[in-house]
Amino acid sequence: FQEDFDNFWGECPWEEDLRYAQATCDALGVELRTVPLTKEYWEKVVEHSIGEIRRGRTPNPDVLCNSRVKFGVFYDHLDASGDADEFGLVASGHYAMVRRRGDVS
């Protein structure tokens, strides 16, 4: 589980997300490990986004988080800790529910 922030936005259900991730891991019989990336998220996503807004531009924090944190420093952390070889797969937590009505989804 990648914990990105100390709830500095005021409203973020990360604790609920963590409980859901733990329940999923329990059901699958796999260990859940938490990687604290608050500092990295702030430096690589929030500060950049604030700077872009001040320049009159509209950043996309989700894209920044994916490229810089989720698929950046998160994997760097695994490599540095020596845990990278232990994990065959990493679940990103980005999923969608598809609703179908006839031939339309």
From TrEMBL:
It comes from the Eukaryota. The keyword Ribonucleoprotein does not apply. GO terms for biological process: tRNA processing. InterPro entries: Rossmann-like_a/b/a_fold (IPR014729), tRNA_2-thiouridylase_MnmA (IPR051305). Pfam families: tRNA_Me_trans (PF03054). Keywords: ATP-binding, Disulfide bond, Nucleotide-binding, RNA-binding, Transferase, tRNA processing, tRNA-binding. One of its GO terms (molecular function) is ATP binding. SUPFAM superfamilies: Adenine nucleotide alpha hydrolases-like. This is tRNA-5-taurinomethyluridine 2-sulfurtransferase. The lineage of its organism: Eukaryota, Viridiplantae, Prasinodermophyta, Prasinodermophyceae, Prasinodermales.
